[in-house]
Amino acid sequence: MKAKDVMEPITETLSPETTLKEAVNRMKVARRGEGWTGVKGMIVLDDGKLAGIVSIKDILRAIIPSYMRLTELGEFTWDGMLEEMTKKVAGKKVGEVMTRDVITVSEDAPLMECADLMVKHSLQRLPVLDKDKRVVGMVYIRDLYQAIVQALLDKEGE
Amino acid sequence: MTNEAAAATQPFVMNASFWTATVIFLLAYALIVSEKVHKTVVALFGAALMLVLKILEQKEAFHVEEFGVDWNVIFLLISMMVIINLMKPTGFFEYIAIKSAKLGKGEPMRIMTIFALVTAVLSALLDNVTTVLLLAPVTLLIADALEVDPVPFLIAEALASNIGGTATLIGDPPNIMIASKAKLDFISFIYNLTPAIIVIMAAFLFVLKLIFGKRLRVKPELRQRILEMDEREAIKDPLMLKKSLFVLAIVITGFVLHGMLGYEPATVALFGAGLLLLLSGTHEPHHVLAEVEWPTIFFFMGLFIIIGGVVKVGLIKWMSIEVLALTHGNMFATSMLIMWFSAFASAFVDNIPYVATMNPLIIDMANQIWPHLQGIKLLHNPELMPLWWSLALGACLGGNGTAIGASANVIVVGLAERAGRKITFIRFMAYGMPVMILTVLLSTVYVWLRYYVLKI
Questions:
Q1: The domain at A3-157 falls in which architecture?
Q2: ipTM given for this complex
Q3: Yes or no, beta carbons of B141 and A77 under 8 Å apart
Q4: For residue A28, with 0-12 CB atoms within 10 Å meaning exposed, 13-18 middle and 19 or more buried, which class applies?
Q5: For the segment B165-222, what is each residue's pLDDT rounded down to a tens digit?
Q6: Local structure of B264: helix, strand or coil
Q7: A95 contacts chain B (CB < 8 A)
C-alpha cells in the first residue's frame, strides 16, 4: 500500500495570520470522521501552499518562556504560571509558533517510508503532497498502525 | 623627548612590507567592525595573509612571544572554559541565583542590588559571558514571578558584570591580555584595580537605586512565589558540585599565589581544568571540550598574529611615537588619554582587538622613553604602571557604553529579545553610556589620586 491508500482527507486548515487563540478553538471543534471532534494538529496553508504545521507540542513550546529552554528551572515555576503564560501568548500568530520545516511524503510513498519518517522524527502525522506540491491528505500514525494490524491479522487468518 | 629623537633611536622603514601589513590590519579591523564577515573568519584569514605574504615567518607567529600567539592567554581562556563547562550542569549557578532572589525577600530593588553584586563577584572570578548567560534566565523567571519588567534587571546585570570583571586578572579578556604582555600577576590586579572597582560598584548600586528605587513595586502575594522556591532543588549533582568547588578553590588560591610560586596564570588554570576533568570521571570529554568557545579562541589566535605582523613592520611603533608627541611625553596626560580613548573605543569596537593593539603600543612607548631599560624593569617601571591600569579600566569599563561594547551586553540583549522584550541600541545606551562615563570619571580620579598625588 501507498500513502494515498491510507491517508485521510484534510477538512480544515489554518493560515499563518490566525491567532493562537483562534487556532486552538478551530482545533477543538474540528471534526474528523464519524463522531470525533477535536484534532491535535493542523496544517497551515499560505496561498494554498503548505507553510507549516501546528501541533499541541508547538503550542506548548510557544507557551513555555524562552529562558526555560536555556537552563533547568522547572522546579522554580509556580502554580498558575502555565495559565498566565498561555494568556500572554494568546494573540500570537500561528505563523510565529508553527513548525516550518514540515516533513512530508508524496502520494506514492510506500508505507515503510512513512513509518520510517514518523519514528525518526517522532511525528504523529505526515502531510501528503501531490506532484504540484499541494497537500491532498494526511497520514496519521494510527493509519499506519491500522495497516500493521491488518497485515498481522490477515496472516493469522490464513 | 621629541618625535624625531624617538624615531631616531629605533628606526624603521615604510617599505612594501610595512604597507602590506598595515593594509591587512586596517582591513581586518574594518571588517570586524562592520560585522559583514564573522570576526573569527576575518582574524584567521588576516593571520594567514600575514604568513603567506611573508610579513611574519610561521615560526615567529607560533613560537615568538613578541610577534605571535600568546599561548598564556589561549590556555588560560580554554582552561577556565573547561572548568566552567564541567561546573554548569551541577546547578550551582541556578542555586546562587535563586538563593539571591530569596535573600532579596522578593523585593525587586533588593533583588536587583543583590543580583548586581553577585554578577560582579562571579564575573570577577569567572568570565562575564558565562555569568550573565547563567544568571539571566533565572532573572527572567524571577521577573515573571514578580510581574515586573525584566529589562532593568538584565541591563543592570550586564553593566555589573563588566564592572566586576575589571577587578581581577581573570575577570575580563583585556585584563588577561594585559597581564600576560605586561607580566603582571593576579595580586597586582587585586592590589591596583579591585579597590577602584569596589568604589565604582558602590556608586553604581547607588545609581541603580536612584533610577529604579521608586519604580519597582510588587504585590505581597507575588513575593510569596519567590519565597516558596527551594534553591536546594537546583543542585543536580551534589558530588560533582563538591569536586568543582574544591577545584575552583585550588585554582583561585593558585591565582593568588602564582606570582610567588613562579607559575603563569595559564599553568594554574590548566592544572584546574585537568584535575576537574580527572575528578569528574568522564570517559567522554568530547562535549565538555566541544562547548569551549572555539570561535573566540581562534579569534584570539588570528588576532595575535595580525598584531604581530604590524608590530614587526613598525606600525605600532609609529603609532606610539604619535601618541607620545600628542601628550608631549607627559605620563599623566598619556595615561588619561589611554583611559578615555580606550573607554570610547571599547564602547563601539570589540575591546579584544583594541587591547591586543594597545599592549605592544604601550611597550613601544616605554621603549622610547626608557631606551636603556629592558624586560621587567621596563614593563614594571613605576611611571609606566598607571598606563597599564588606565588601559585596563578604560577598556573594560568602556564596554558598558553601548549594547555592542561587551559580549555580556550582546548576550543580555539577545536573551531579552527572545523573551519578547526588545532592548534597542538607544535604550541600552541610555543606561550604559552614563554609567560608563561615571565609572571612567571615578577611575580618572582614582588613577590621578593614587598614582600621581599619593603615589602609592
A1: Roll (3.10)
A2: 0.80
A3: yes
A4: exposed
A5: 999 999 999 999 999 999 999 999 999 999 999 999 999 999 999 988 877 778 888 8
A6: coil
A7: no
